[in-house]
Design a protein that fits this description.
About 50% of the residues lie in helices and about 20% in strands. By secondary structure, it is an alpha+beta fold. The protein has four domains: about 130 residues, Multidrug efflux transporter AcrB transmembrane fold, CATH 1.20.1640; about 90 residues, Multidrug efflux transporter AcrB pore domain (Alpha-Beta Plaits, 2-Layer Sandwich); about 90 residues, 2-Layer Sandwich (Alpha-Beta Plaits), CATH 3.30.70; about 80 residues, Multidrug efflux transporter AcrB TolC docking domain, DN and DC subdomains (2-Layer Sandwich), CATH 3.30.2090. A four-stranded antiparallel beta sheet has the order 2-3-1-4. A four-stranded antiparallel beta sheet has the order 6-13-5-14. Strands 7-12 form a two-stranded antiparallel ribbon.
């Protein structure tokens, strides 16, 4: 069988060369199409359900949120395991699916079951699905260099401008903000004044909620014009809160400023983000969507940074904290360097020992075609080009080189012996 294949290849050299060229072109196409990442994605096929109920202890979260969710999410098709975690003010439920389950099909089934499970939760508590990313989806971190802005202003800039811009980048599942202070209006109640006016904290809470709202009216027609009537009640500044009525005493309106003070402050923080010991910074973590090409997503993010910088306040710049593309580029360059080094080394060895350039050409053609076939198989099997797979290809190049040298030398020796046998003595 082997002899027939060799004979067929020798009789159809042009077809063999065209086939090698076709495989090489196919390999280049597969290389460009195959997702490139630095870290192989070995994470489990999971869907995360996140529920927030601030101010509650972990035990309350476990009993009233985590346990009802875990018990009612049982029975979803292709589920291997369900894990629940409760902490102060937050609940996380991890639904682990089988590896052959499509991630978006799994998210849909979990969302269907949540519609029923939500009825068992406390009023006003809504569970949400986590981003459609994986455990290695954190591909890009950045922070702001803004020496003339405080942490609250930086966080507002991140949450209301930068974050929305990056979420429009193709392949981005989520942009998680970190650092700084989330601005909020804070009402500091003086208890003795509250007692004097005969009010409770619930009265203040209801008054604030009721007064921070726009209401709609009807259409009013006058002559040939129609007017839309509506009531404007959304809070715009501290004075609007201070002048909110919470009750009456002796026919006199009692306002927020009569029972306390209103200030602008930051939300409760559970940690800070420090940059190399130089102080706190504000930034974001870009999470890649499941199955995307990390290299393309990072390039799109860097292009988006140039657009977003045009709209930033003066003196505000982006600083990159973590960029996985650097590691990916080094891995690809390592394979390229190994391939070139092996080609040069083989050519020198063949030319020195055999003095036959056509024998060297055989291995020079064999190496890139073998690497190209490797990328074709990676694409066919759905394996990304990462450090592990690229390292395997780099190691395999050495095996291909050894095999090529042995085969070429053996063929050269047999041809030489045959020629010597046929020559007349």
């Amino acid at each position: 069988m082997v002899e027939k294949l060799i004979d067929l290849a020798l009789k159809n050299r042009l077809i063999v060369l065209l086939l090698a060229a076709g495989l090489f072109a196919w390999g280049i196409y597969s290389l460009r199409k195959n997702p490139i990442d630095a870290i192989p994605d070995l994470s489990e096929n999971q869907v995360i359900v996140f529920t927030e109920w601030m101010g509650r202890s972990p035990q309350v979260i476990e009993d009233q949120v985590t346990y009802p969710l875990v018990s009612n999410l049982q029975g979803i098709p292709k589920v291997k395991n369900i894990r629940g975690t409760s902490m102060f003010g937050m609940s996380f439920v991890y639904i682990i699916f089988e590896d052959n389950a499509d991630v978006y099909w799994a998210r849909t089934r979990v969302l269907e079951r949540l519609n029923y499970a939500q009825r068992l939760l406390p009023q006003g508590i809504t569970p949400t699905l986590g981003p459609d990313g994986t455990g290695v989806g954190h591909i890009f971190w950045y922070h702001l260099d803004a020496p003339n802005m405080d942490l609250g202003e930086q966080r507002s800039l991140q949450d209301w401008y930068i974050k929305f811009a990056f979420q429009n980048v193709p392949g981005v599942a989520e942009v998680a903000s970190f650092g700084g202070f989330q601005k909020q209006y804070q009402i500091v109640i003086e208890p003795h004044k509250l007692t004097y006016y005969g009010l409770t904290l619930m009265d203040v809470l209801k008054a604030v909620k009721a007064n921070n709202n726009d209401v709609g009216g009807r259409k009013f027609e006058m002559t040939d014009m129609a007017y839309i009537i509506r009531g404007l009640g959304y809070i715009k500044n501290i004075e609007d809160i201070e002048n909110m009525p919470v009750g009456t005493k002796n026919s006199i309106s009692i306002k927020i400023k009569d029972i306390g003070r209103v200030q602008m402050g930051g939300d409760l923080r559970l940690g800070i983000f420090d940059m190399n010991g130089t102080g706190e910074v504000v930034g974001g973590i870009v999470v890649m969507r499941y199955g995307e090409n990390a290299d393309k997503v990072i390039k799109a993010i860097k292009a988006k940074i140039k657009e977003v910088e045009k709209g930033l306040p003066e003196g505000v710049k982006f600083k990159i904290s973590y960029d996985r593309s650097t590691l990916m580029e080094e891995a690809v360059e390592s394979v390229k360097g190994t391939l070139i080094e092996e080609i040069v080394a083989v050519s020198i060895v063949i030319l020195l020992f055999l003095f036959h350039w056509r024998s060297a050409l055989i291995i020079i053609i064999q190496l890139p075609v073998s690497v190209a076939i490797g990328f074709i198989l990676l694409e066919a099997c759905g394996i990304s080009s990462n450090i592990m797979s690229l390292t395997g290809i780099a190691l395999a190049i050495g095996v291909v080189v050894d095999d090529g040298i042995v085969m070429v030398e053996n063929a050269y020796r047999h041809i030489a012996e045959e020629q010597e046998r046929k020559e007349p003595v």
